[in-house]
Each structure stands twice: as C-alpha cells, then as structure tokens.
User: What shape does this take?
Amino acid sequence: MAFDGLYLTTIAQELSRKILDTRADKVQQPEKDEIILAFRSRSGTHRVLLTSSADHARVHLTEAVKAN
Assistant: This one.
C-alpha cells in the first residue's frame, strides 16, 4: 500500500477522533525504527504506534505496552 496523501488524510481523521483534546503523556522508542506516543485524556490513555520499518511501515492505535 502506498503511503500517499489519501492514506495520510484517512489516518489523520481516524486518529483525530481518539486523540483530540488530549495531552501528550509519554514518548517511547522500544525499537530503533519504532515510536510509541501515549496521549492522556479524561476517558483514558491512547497509544499511537509509528513504525518506519522498510517491510512494515505503519501508523495505528495500539493497546500493547512495550519495554522502553
């Protein structure tokens, strides 16, 4: 799948529903090509996984907790 403008727009819309009106709580880098951003709101914590791996580049919400 191409990482183009249409894909970025879809990701931005999906993430904005979850992390709008939240505060950045924690930034983790469990792997050299991975970043996990934790956002806190009144409804709970949301984590966004950003991976720049050549084989599996992706951006999505996750519930997984990895060691930093």
In short: The chain has a mean pLDDT of 88. The CA atoms of residues 38 and 47 lie 4 Å apart. The first strand starts at residue 23 and ends at 28. The longest helix spans residues 5-19.
